[in-house]
Amino acid sequence: MHILDWDNIVGTHCGSVAIRNVINYFGVNYEEEVCFGLGCGLGFFYSKLTNSKPSEVIHLRAPNMEPNFFSTEKKSYSWQLESNPKLAHKKLIEMIKLGFPVFLQTDLYYLKYYDSKIHFPGHVLVCIGFDEKKKIFFVSDTNFNEIQTVAFFDMDQARSSKAEPYPLSYNWFVVKEFYPFKNMNRKIEDSIVMNSQNYIKGQVSERGISSIFSFLEWIENLESWLQLEDSRIVFRFAYQIVAKRGNMGGGFRYIYAEFLKFAEKNSEKIYKMRLSHHMLHIAKSWEKGAHLMKDISVKQNKQDFIELKKTLIKLYSLEYEYHTNVLDTLRN
Question: Where are the alpha helices (DSSP H) in the chain?
Fold first, then answer.
């Protein structure tokens, strides 16, 4: 049996908690919201699924946050993919034997400690140990104080799930050392600019395109949600994505507002722009929209739908204003 000396930290979101745990393993402690912000975590996906329920989904986090956090001018990180199950298993074992925690993307449907009835591919955890006799891995996962175990067979399924909208190919990456950022002020400002640039320009990933224009496409197509066969499920799941599922509410906008408060303490430029105030306004509007979607999932009230669309149109304007302001003010 091999298991790393691990001080487990719990928190809000799988990816930012995973980052925090890994850097803590290397003796560095940044708060979760700082990990999220420095990883450029804000985004928006809109996906139409062909063989799954709910049949249409949204997701409000950007792709590649975890490797983004660790990437510097000297070294770039990215999710590594594997096509060979045996090789994927072997590499994971080897990294842990060498003393390195490993980031994994999984479908939590196959993680039995969740007992999930719905596929949710892309869930990030950190593998920190294994027992070859018992054929289990030890993992650190967002909300669990105790280290969880996953059978080798279940981990193989979780890492190779082809569930929509994000099919997996044993996605993983490893960080072998980490030191505190030397110029935190520069890292903060660069991360804020990069996140806004990615959101306006768009980021292509295996999940689809994350961008503010994907948000606009969803708004323009929203009326069709009322006609979907699984309409109530679609609205309910969207409510959960925005308000419940590992994001501090507000579709990750509250956690990003906390990062911006930290940024304002470290950067005079950011402080003068009052970005956290703007982001809190955005987060509250997302929260309002989420609860309208919850009501629609129960009552299918036309007035609630009209109010939802008005709220989302206003939200689009608020987000566009925020991100263009960042780029106009900070990019140069």
Answer: 14-25, 32-38, 65-70, 85-97, 152-160, 184-201, 212-221, 231-243, 253-266, 268-273, 275-299, 302-330
Model confidence pLDDT, tens digit, residues 86-130: 999 999 999 999 999 999 999 999 999 999 988 999 999 999 999
> Does the reported pTM lie above 0.85?
yes
Coil, strand, or helix at residue 134? coil
Which H helix or E strand runs over 274? Answer: none
Beta-bridge partners for 42: 61
Task: Tell me how far apart the alpha carbons of residues 224 and 108 are, in angstroms, rounded to a whole number.
Answer: 29
Residue linked to tokens 């990215």:
78
- Residue 105, Cβ density class (10 Å: 0-12 exposed, 13-18 middle, ≥19 buried): buried
Rounded-to-integer distance, Cα 25 and Cα 251, Å: 28
Measured distance CA(214)–CA(210) in Å, rounded:
6
Q: Cα separation of 158 and 153, whole Å?
A: 9
150 neighbors 137 (Cβ within 8 angstroms):
yes
Beta carbons of 81 and 171 less than 8 angstroms apart: yes
Find out whether 246 and 36 touch, Cβ atoms under 8 Å.
Answer: no
